[in-house]
Design a protein that fits this description.
The strands form 6 sheets. Strands 1, 2, 3, 4, 5 and 26 form a 6-stranded antiparallel β-sheet that branches. The chain has a 4-stranded antiparallel β-sheet with strand order 6-7-8-9. It has a domain of 212 residues: YVTN repeat-like/Quinoprotein amine dehydrogenase (Methylamine Dehydrogenase, Chain H, 7 Propeller). Helices cover 5% and strands 44% of the residues. Strand 8 and strand 9 form a beta hairpin. By secondary structure, the protein is mainly beta. It is globular and about 80 Å long.
Length: 333
C-alpha cells in the first residue's frame, strides 16, 4: 500500500506555504541539479564484406531528476580490432532514427566500398550514406499504394551497392484477415526493378537473405523445411543444407563459408558442415577480419576463429554525469 503523500511544503489554512525545513531545502536543491544518468543499449551492428569495418547504431537514454527522459540515437563506426572509433552523427528525425523502435543486431548492413548502409525493422527500410545522411526511405504504406507488400524486414545490400534483397510479408486476405507468409524479393536503391525471388511453399517461410561477397549468390533460410538455401540473383536454387532451426546465415569475407546460428560453419563448395563452435556464439554473430563480431547485451565482443579467445570491443556505460559532460568521449562506447 502506498504511504501518505507528503508535499514539499506544508500548507496552512490560509494556503500560504510554511518555510521549508532543512531536509526539504536539500530535496529542492537536488531536484535542480543538472546531473543525468547516461545509459547506452547494446548496439545494432553492420559489417562490410571484408569483415573489417563496422558501423553501429546505439541508443542513449538520459534520465534526470528534473527533466523528462530523452532517447537519442547515434550512428558510429569502428574497425574489427576495436580501433578507429568515430561517431558519424546523431540521427535526428523519424525517417532516419529519432523515433525508431529498437531493432535486432542483425537488421543492419553496410557496404564500405559503396559508402552505403541500410537498416529496417518491419515497418520501413532506410538506405543511408556512411557519412550519416539518408538517401532513401521505404515506407510500408507508400509501397502498398503502388501494389507492393505491406511489411518488409531484414534488408541486405549487394556488394556493388546497387541492389537490396529483403524479406516481405504477404497477407493474402489483408493485414487483418489472418495468415501471412514471407518471401525474399529485391529491388534497386530507388525502388525500381522490383522482383520476387522465392515462391510460396507454406506460411512463415523464406527469411534472412544474405548476399555473397562476390554478389553472385544470396543465402536465405526456409524455416518450414529447416533449410539453409543458396540461390543465384534470379532466384534459382544452387544448393541446400539441412539443420535444426537454422538462422542468420553470414558469409565469410572470402565467400568460402557460411556461419549459421553463431555455431555451425558450412563449407560453400561442398554444402556440408565442417565445424561446430563450442561454446556457440550469439545467434547474431557476424564474421569479422580473422574472427567473429558478437553483439552482447552489455557491448560487443570480438571472438577469434577458435571460438574461445574473446576480446571486448565496445563496453556499455551507465553512469551519472553533468549535462555539460554528455558529449565527452568518455561517455561514449
Amino acid at each position: 500500500m502506498l504511504g501518505p503523500f507528503r508535499p514539499l511544503y506544508d500548507y496552512a489554512e490560509s494556503n500560504e506555504p510554511s518555510p521549508p525545513t532543512p531536509e526539504q531545502r536539500r530535496e529542492l536543491e537536488k531536484a535542480k541539479e543538472p546531473h543525468i544518468i547516461i545509459s547506452y543499449y547494446a548496439p545494432s551492428i553492420g559489417t562490410d564484406a571484408t569483415g573489417e569495418n563496422v558501423v553501429y547504431v546505439l541508443k542513449q537514454i538520459r534520465w534526470s531528476v528534473n527533466l523528462k527522459n530523452e532517447d537519442h540515437w547515434f550512428l558510429s563506426s569502428l574497425n574489427s580490432s576495436g580501433g578507429a572509433r568515430r561517431e558519424i552523427r546523431e540521427i535526428e528525425n523519424r525517417y532516419d532514427g529519432r523515433n525508431l523502435p529498437w531493432f535486432p543486431p542483425g537488421y543492419m548492413e553496410i557496404n564500405s566500398e559503396a559508402s552505403l548502409g541500410i537498416f529496417g525493422n518491419g515497418e520501413y527500410m532506410l538506405v543511408f550514406r556512411l557519412s550519416g545522411t539518408s538517401i532513401r526511405y521505404f515506407d510500408c504504406q507508400g509501397w502498398k499504394e503502388v501494389g507492393h507488400p505491406w511489411r518488409f524486414s531484414a534488408p541486405a545490400l549487394s556488394p556493388d551497392g546497387k541492389w537490396i534483397a529483403f524479406v516481405e510479408e504477404i497477407c493474402p486476405k489483408g493485414p487483418y484477415g489472418g495468415g501471412s507468409y514471407h518471401r525474399v524479393a529485391k529491388c534497386r536503391l530507388d525502388g525500381s526493378e522490383y522482383a520476387v525471388l522465392t515462391k510460396f511453399e507454406g506460411y512463415r517461410n523464406n527469411i534472412q537473405p544474405a548476399w555473397s561477397p562476390d554478389g553472385n549468390s544470396i543465402a536465405y533460410i526456409c524455416p518450414n523445411n529447416d533449410e539453409l538455401r543458396v540461390m543465384d540473383v534470379d532466384g534459382n536454387i544452387k544448393w541446400t543444407f539441412h539443420s535444426f532451426q537454422p538462422r542468420n546465415p553470414r558469409w565469410s569475407p572470402d565467400g568460402k563459408f557460411l556461419l549459421l546460428n553463431g555455431k555451425i560453419v558450412v563449407d560453400v563448395a561442398s554444402g556440408k558442415m565442417i565445424r561446430k563452435l563450442n561454446p556457440p556464439l550469439s545467434e547474431w554473430a557476424r564474421w569479422g577480419r580473422g574472427g567473429y563480431l558478437v553483439p552482447q547485451k552489455d557491448g560487443v565482443d570480438f571472438v577469434e576463429l577458435d571460438g574461445k579467445t574473446t576480446h571486448r570491443l565496445l563496453q556499455n556505460v551507465s553512469r551519472l554525469a553533468k549535462r555539460s559532460d554528455i558529449n565527452k568521449e568518455e561517455f561514449r562506447w
